[in-house]
Amino acid sequence: MTAMTLTDLAEKMRDIDFTTLSTRTDDGALAARPMSNNGDVDYDGDSFFFAYGSTRTISDIERDPSVGLAFQGRKGLLGKPPLFVAVEGRADVVRDKQTFKAHWTSGLDHWFKDGIDTPDLVMIHVHATRIHYWDGSDEGEIRV
Questions:
Q1: Residue 17 maps to a domain
Q2: What secondary structure letter does DSSP report for 55?
């Protein structure tokens, strides 16, 4: 087993688009939903997702910013298992249009018809505090 750096892990995560974002609901239950990083994949411990501000996801984050992200890569080459990544982090809700612009891609127009001017648009910023990874032959933890 070798120790992977955040840069090494980012390279392995390059093709992963979707993650599962987990939050705590007001009664303490876990709620999970798929989110896309929309091609914003130069992973440095920060993840960004667009959402509507009136959703339960946002109220969960505003009440308890501790969140989890679960990533799974494609099946590895030559029968090797895929990469799995579990992230513990802190989320905050961003309402700044300049920040939206920095992370916007044209594919988002499908979900948010008015672009960065879509009413109720917010961005979820997750900063990782701990990352655990497995790829069949290697596993480890990175503190961010």
A1: yes
A2: S
The 10 Å Cβ neighbour count of residue 72 is 13
Distances from the Cα of 44 to the Cαs of 5, 31, 40, in angstroms? Answer: 11, 25, 11
Q: How many distinct structural domains can be found in the chain? A: 1
Q: Which residues have CB under 8 Å from 38's CB, separation 6+? A: 17, 49, 50, 103, 105, 107, 108
Domain with residue 23: its CATH number is: 2.30.110.10
Q: Could you report the per-residue pLDDT of 34-52, keeping only the tens digit for each?
A: 998 766 556 788 999 999 9
pTM score, whole prediction: 0.89
Residue 26 included in any domain: yes
d(CA 7, CA 10) in angstroms, rounded, equals 5
Q: Does 1 map to a domain?
A: no
Q: What is the pLDDT of residues 92-122, one digit of tens each?
A: 999 999 999 999 988 899 999 999 999 999 9
Tokens of 32: 């999970």
